[in-house]
Design goal:
Length: 129
């Protein structure tokens, strides 16, 4: 049993390196008789990839961003939404970036609380005469 290479010539003028399909001189990608099947396969692939809904569908409740704690809440929500997506290098980078921003927001929230406590303490003191 011998396996033949596809007889098609690629766009750059070199012979196709794929093996020919059984009973044909061409591979699946170059066989004129397979054009309808190729179109269907591409269409199914696009629908499979883009037709999915990951996580709850709809709009989340609006979030007011008045404090760094609000920003931290938004970042936390976004990280959790991102964790629902397919695992990929881009997702990992996004989560890492958002986690760094989240830590900065937490630091800022602590500083805001400390500043507010100092301001309250100063307001409670009697003015010096």
């Amino acid at each position: 049993m011998t396996t033949n290479k596809c007889q098609a010539i690629t766009q750059d003028g070199t012979p196709c390196q794929a093996y020919a399909a059984a009973g044909s001189d061409y591979c699946f990608h170059h066989d004129p008789a397979q054009a309808a099947q190729r179109h269907l396969a591409r269409s199914k692939g696009g629908r499979a990839r883009h037709g999915r809904h990951i996580g709850p569908v709809g709009q989340p409740a609006p979030l007011t961003l008045d404090t760094t704690a609000d920003v931290a809440t938004l970042l936390q929500r976004t990280i959790n939404d991102t964790l629902q997506l397919e695992n990929s290098l881009q997702r990992a980078r996004t989560i890492g970036y958002l986690a760094g921003l989240f830590l900065k927001a937490l630091d800022m929230a602590v500083l805001e609380q400390q500043l507010a406590a100092l301001e309250r303490t100063l307001e409670q003191r009697e003015p010096l005469r």
